[in-house]
Amino acid sequence: QVQLVESGGGLVQPGGSLRLSCEGSGFIFSRYAVNWYRQAPGKEREFVASIGSVGRSTNYADSVKGRFIISRDNAKNTVYLRMNSLTPEDTAVYYCNSGNGGWGQGTQVTVSS
Length: 113
Description:
mainly beta
C-alpha cells in the first residue's frame, strides 16, 4: 500500500536550518508529484511546497519562498525540504503528500530559543 514516512524534524533555534525527508514506498514514486504541508497548533493545514514527478517544476508558498528548497531523488524514493532562516512562525507539524493521495504521519518542527 501507499506509504510515506517523514523524518528530520526537531528543535532548532531561530535562524537555523533543518532538512526534512519524505520517503515513499508501495507505489511508483517517480510518477507522482509530492507536496509538503504544515499545520501549526490551532491553525489549518497549509501548503508549503511542491515538486513535480521528475523534479523540474517546483512551487512554494509565499511565506517560505527564498528560504525553503524542495528537491527529490527518485533513485531513493525520497523528497527533501531544506528549510533555512527558520523563525518561530515555522513551528508546525510537517506532512508530505503524494499525487496519488498518500499522506505521511508528520514530523514536528519547533523553532525556539
